[in-house]
Write a structure and sequence with these properties.
Layout lengths: L26 H14 L4 H8 L6 H8 L8 H8 L2 H13 L1 H11 L3 H12 L8 E2 H10 L4 H16 L9 E2 L12 H7 L15 H15 L8 E5 L10 E7 H6 L3 E2 L10 E5 L8 E4 L1 H5 L7 H14 L16 H13 L13 H14 L9 H6 L1
Keywords: Lyase
GO molecular function, one term: peptidoglycan lytic transglycosylase activity
Protein name: Membrane-bound lytic murein transglycosylase B
């Protein structure tokens, strides 16, 4: 399946498009609304009818969306589940096999090969598992569902644009349950805006061309803010007595300022002292600690999960020579039900935790850190049974 015949880039497809239809309700009526909006956007009615002709609500997509239990695991468990010796070995082999492509991606877009290998591994096991969900069904189902319609509704029209160009067959295009396509799992709008013909054959085939997939992933990261020749993460050791309220992504200092507070690398040396950085402790101050930089924050443009991004960034350091993290001895965390209870109690105290979903995301971590400080507990953003009892 080919994507673009040319390298034309659409800067914005549906940015600012008014959402004239709410989510939910009768699925057939919802699809009718999408058709009407597409026609109002200037698409030929016959094209629109062909695009939506066989669309259906896919309950398996909803089930997959609700079944993301792995994101509830703490960092040590999550990272050990995703980073196997087999993946490390395959990462090294794929780097050697496609070294010229990775070198080209780094020259053109400034993205380190380790980052691209990490996401390629996590997304599809280097292209082996790309998903067999019908892409249009998945996108329309998730646009109709009321959990994240603002994310998926624009992607329906991006897929329609791909179909108009002859680059997506709504009957046969398949991918991940969330509508991503190809070896590095990109949504239609990112394919339109950032896909690259990496192998120079005049087509962009993200499902079958390693060069196209690698270069397109690098292109997207650069467009989202990746800074060439800058680091993304380095493991560090915390000094005794560090003010833990300074940990987390909300606090930024120069590397030199962190060093003056006693932060030290666990291996090698830290980068330039003038670079701005944060200190994250994904499983609390008794677990691994990392200094992270602007490029780490850019990775949230690829995936919004804190635990996923942290693990991918760490895996990228391993692929580029870093040793295994110092696991430490973290305090016991909370199970999913306890986390939901904690989130509910935090909301009752006026904190914004995002969704009450039992997942320790960035908003919940920030709220936990603030309430820990209020209660005189170690304010590292890691929720424990002791914190739950205190609330």
């Amino acid at each position: 399946m080919r994507f673009f015949k040319t390298l034309a880039i659409v800067a914005t497809l549906v940015a600012g498009q008014a959402q004239s239809q709410s989510c939910g309700g009768d699925f057939g009526g919802f699809v009718g609304g999408l058709k009407s909006e597409a026609v109002s956007m200037g698409y030929d009615r016959a094209l629109v009818e062909r695009f939506f002709a066989n669309v259906r609500r896919d309950q398996s997509v909803i089930n997959a969306d609700r079944r993301q239990g792995i994101f509830q695991r703490p960092f040590l468990d999550f990272s050990r589940a995703l980073i196997s010796q087999n993946r490390l070995n395959n990462g090294a082999r794929n780097y050697e096999r496609y070294r010229s492509i990775f070198d080209a991606a780094q020259r053109q877009f400034g993205v380190n090969p380790g980052i691209l290998l990490a996401f390629w591994a996590f997304e599809t096991d280097f292209g082996a598992v790309q998903g067999d969900f019908n892409t249009v069904n998945a996108l329309v189902t998730l646009a109709h569902d009321c959990r994240r319609p603002e994310l998926f509704r624009p992607q329906v029209f991006a897929a329609l644009e791909m179909h108009r160009r002859g680059d997506l067959d709504p009957r046969t295009m398949t991918g991940a349950w969330a509508g991503e396509i190809g070896m590095v799992q990109k949504l239609p709008s990112d394919i339109i805006n950032h896909a690259v013909d990496g192998d120079g054959d005049g087509q962009i085939t993200l499902k079958t061309s390693q060069a196209d997939a690698i270069m397109s992933g690098a292109s997207m990261l650069q467009a989202k803010g990746w800074r060439a020749n800058e680091p993304w993460m380095h493991e560090v050791a915390l000094p005794q007595g560090l003010d833990l309220t300074q940990t987390g992504l909300r606090t930024r200092m120069s590397v030199s300022e962190w060093q003056n507070l006693g932060i030290r690398p666990t291996h090698g040396s830290l980068p330039s002292g003038s670079l701005q950085a944060s200190i994250i402790v994904p499983q609390g101050h008794r677990g691994p600690a990392f200094m992270v930089f602007d490029n780490f924050v850019t990775l949230f443009e690829w995936n919004q999960s804190f635990i996923y991004v942290t693990t991918a960034a760490y895996f990228a350091t391993r692929l580029t020579g870093a040793p295994v993290y110092q696991a430490g001895n973290p305090d016991t965390g909370l199970n999913q039900d306890q986390m939901r209870t904690l989130q509910t109690r935090l909301v009752a105290r006026g904190f914004d935790v995002g969704d009450v979903d039992g997942i320790l995301g960035a908003n919940t971590r920030a709220a936990v850190q603030d309430v820990q400080a209020q209660l005189g507990m170690p304010a590292d953003g890691w929720p424990t049974p002791a914190l739950l009892r205190a609330l």
